[in-house]
């Protein structure tokens, strides 16, 4: 049975991204299959785990949310065997609209 952990806080600069990246990496090192989903248009969790910087991933969570790309096609491998990444896109700024 999987678990979903959301790291969210309305306040900026309080360590959300740092927590998400390090928590995901720590779980992966413990050999727990982990998918880090970056839902922030800043895409810092994406670049922080070796993904394309600047939200430039061609297949990304925004295109998944828009039903343009199947989720399985957007997941990237990382340097850690148990850690996968669903990268963000700068386009997420428009996702709420
Ligand atoms: N436990 C910590 N101790 C000291 N500094 C930290 C800690 N966690 C994060 N930081 C630093 O605080 C700054 C903000 O962290 P981070 O980018 O993770 O915050 P955030 O909540 O994701 O910000 P934003 O709202 O911009 O997305 C960074 O420079 C980060 O290195
Ligand atoms: Mg952040």
Question: Which keywords apply here?
Answer:
single chain; 97 residues; alpha+beta; three-stranded mixed β-sheet; 3 strands; globular; binds adenosine-5'-triphosphate; binds magnesium ion
What's the shape? Answer: globular
What ligands does this structure carry?
adenosine-5'-triphosphate, magnesium ion
The neighbouring-strand order within the major sheet is 1-3-2
Number of contiguous helices: 4
Mean pLDDT: 93
Tell me the structural class: alpha+beta
Low-confidence parts lasting 5 or more residues at pLDDT below 50?
none
Task: State the end-to-end distance.
Answer: 33 Å
Q: Sheet with the most strands?
A: 3 strands, mixed
Write a structural description:
There is one protein chain. By secondary structure, this protein is α+β, with helices and mostly antiparallel strands. The chain has one domain (about 15-95). Helix content is about 30%, strand content about 10%. The protein contains four helices and three strands, in the order H-E-H-H-H-E-E. The chain has helices spanning about 15-30, 45-50, 60-65, 70-75, and strands at about 35, 75, 85. Strands 1-3-2 form a three-stranded mixed beta sheet. Strand 2 (about 75) and strand 3 form a beta hairpin. The chain is globular and about 35 Å long. Bound molecules: adenosine-5'-triphosphate and magnesium ion.
């Amino acid at each position: 049975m999987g678990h979903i952990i959301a790291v969210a806080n309305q306040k900026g600069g309080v360590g959300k991204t740092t927590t998400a990246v390090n928590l995901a990496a720590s779980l992966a090192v413990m050999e727990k299959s982990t998918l880090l989903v970056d839902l922030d248009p800043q895409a810092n969790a994406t670049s922080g785990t070796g993904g394309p910087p600047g939200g430039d991933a061609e297949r990304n969570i925004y295109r998944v949310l828009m039903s343009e790309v199947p989720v399985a096609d957007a997941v990237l491998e990382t340097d850690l065997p148990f850690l996968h990444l669903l990268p963000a896109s700068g386009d997420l700024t428009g996702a709420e609209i």
